[in-house]
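Question (not urgent): is this output format expected?
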Amino acid sequence: MTRPFDPGYGAQPFKGLCEDYPDESVYPSGQFRLEWGPIFHRGRLDGSARVLVIGQDPAQHETIVRRILVGEAGRRVQGFLAKLGISRSYVFINAYLYSVYGSVKAKTRKSPALIEYRNRWLEALLVGQQVEAVLALGQAADEAWQFWRATPAGQSVSVAYAAVTHPTQPESSSKGEKAKLLAATKKMLQNWNAALQVLSPHVQHPDVPTALMLYGENWVDGDRVGIPEFDYPAGLPAWMHEQDGWAKRAGADDLAKRRNITLTVPKGVIA
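Got this back:
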């Protein structure tokens, strides 16, 4: 059996971007989990991407897998792309290379070094390339896009753009209250429907020609789509990309949870 995988960062300019990335002088350790290293992207770096997705910051599953948006948020966005007919021709980057610890201060968000490095990624993925639409997930991603659009390179590129509610905002805002979760999910899916209607006419080269089907008031079968194996580094076990829950921050206090990620092989994998 052959197993597809993402070959990584062997070609320029991405090789150089992964060799020379910001450290704690740009990403303060009090605001980011630098100890787990930077996580750069997910998706196509070969120029075939038609949609660029800007996310926020990596969580524990991304930390282990070394690719971004591979958990529940990623599956929801994968479903969004499927509604545009995009099953492979996409690329994801994050507003921040490192996992956010607490909150990001305004001074850090506006750091010229942070913005300049991120803009190098955006320029590599957009200038002279064939991306037709850009999707930003949440406020940090939208801010990242706006900073880049203000540059000469950003102004030189013409693509459709939509900023949407972050895919796990309903869970984070409802704090376990079912009624609030349902209301927040309905509101978010309305927001996503508006974005689909903005972006869909501009995705002229889908992987699979698809009639646009909008979301309902809650998730239904088919709205969430699994992360394909060809997005992951070689050799990952299947259970790492088939479900969530196998990686958890563990410890009795915030410092311990920062230092520890516990991995658990799901039930049924081992006889």
